[in-house]
Amino acid sequence: MDKATLIGLCLGGAALLGGHLLEGGSAGTILQLTAMVIVFGGTLGAVCVSFGGAQLRQAWRELPHIFRKPRDETPDYLTRLVELSYRARREGLLSLEGETKKIPDPFFRRGLELVIDAHQPQQVREIMEVELARLEETGSVPAQVFESAGGYAPTVGILGAVLGLIQVMQHLTEPAKLGTGVAVAFVATIYGVASANLVFLPIAHKFRLRQQHQLRLREMILEGLLALARGDHPRLLAERLRGFLEPDARLDQERLAPARLKVLRPGGRPRTKPHASPSPPAR
After folding, report:
1. 217: closest CA among 102, 141, 132?
2. Taking Cα atoms as reference points, which of 77, 46, 28 lies closest to residue 200?
3. Which domain holds residue 163?
4. Quick check: 219 and 244 in contact, CB under 8 A?
5. pLDDT (tens digit, 9 = 90+) per residue, 187-213?
6. Do the domain assignments include residue 271?
7. Would you call 235 helix, strand, or coil by DSSP?
8. What is the pLDDT of residues 10-64, one digit of tens each?
9. Is 270 strand, coil or helix?
10. What is the distance of C-alpha 275 from the center of its chain?
11. By CB count within 10 A, which of 14, 27, 207, 268 is most buried?
12. Other beta carbons within 10 Å of 47
């Protein structure tokens, strides 16, 4: 679980409610069902008008993921690319044909199939860059949905305050009710501004950061596949791709050493290079 997201949401809500209580207010004053209906219902309606059903469903499916800490798969993919490079250098690209079924990532699998089919590196780049652009477009949808919600919520909150003031104006002949009515009217503004800046926009920003990480991972995969298509030396491939790793996830030489020593049999099982047997002593 991503504790930062949970802590941030709880801390923001607690700070808002706690500050209100410290000023002498009551929880019942700020918890207004009418204001919630106006702000969140109006914001949801505006978002539904802005996006299609498929985009809204995608954003809804991705929402629970902000509470899960994503696993950094970059080192694993780098090691995998180095292993494939050593095998292709020893047995040829056609020996990698059986490896495509073992790769769960569709982007990686499609690119490796193009390399195995002996397409030129430039052709592979052109095809995969189109795929990368499509992934970037579809991957940004959840962030766009929540950014739109963050833009609409404050405005809807102001509308809720205006509606509340309209009700207050109807009781001008009762001065005792004016203060309470004005206070309740501005609760909708609080909901709109708070939900935008404490919930919707931060969630959108987190989606953006995770999308950038996924795009960087796929850029690394593409560079590794292009090096594989060019026949670059595996050590050169590994050094080139190390720049895509996070500072705290740099692979050391010990982790890459097994990949350099692996020699894959046609059946796919790895074995290590046999050590040269010592020559018999001269008589």
Report:
1. 132
2. 46
3. 34-265
4. yes
5. 889 999 999 999 999 999 999 999 999
6. no
7. helix
8. 898 888 888 878 877 777 778 888 888 999 999 999 999 999 999 999 999 999 9
9. strand
10. 45
11. 207
12. 21
Radius of gyration of the CA atoms of the chain, in A:
29
Residue 171 dihedral angles phi and psi, to the nearest 5°: -120, 35
- pLDDT at residue 247, as a whole number: 66
* Tokens 């996070």, residue located: 246
How many C-beta neighbours within 10 Å does residue 83 have? 19
Please give the torsion angle defined by the CA atoms of residues 98, 104, 107 and 112, in that order, rounded to the nearest 10 degrees.
-10
**Domain-located, residue 2:** no
Q: In Å, how far are 211, 240, 272 from 140, measured between CA atoms? A: 7, 28, 44
The token duo for 4 is 């930062």
Which 3-state string (H, E, C) describes 165-207?
HHHHHCCCCCHHHHHHHHHHHCHHHHHHHHHHHHHHHHHHHHH
Query: What is the length of the chain?
Result: 283
In the structure encoding, which two tokens stand for residue 164, read together?
């509340």
Report yes or no on 277 lying in a domain.
Answer: no
Are 27 and 117 in contact by the 8 Å Cβ rule? The answer is no
DSSP state of 271: E
For the chain, report the end-to-end CA distance as a whole number of angstroms: 69
Tell me how many domains the chain contains.
1
DSSP assignments along 23-55, one per residue: TT--HHHH--HHHHHHHHHHHHHHHHHHS-HHH
Tell me the per-residue pLDDT of 112-145, one tens digit each, with 9 for 90 and over: 999 998 889 999 999 999 999 999 999 999 999 9
**Residues 20, 15: Cα–Cα separation, whole Å:** 8
pLDDT above 90 for 259: no
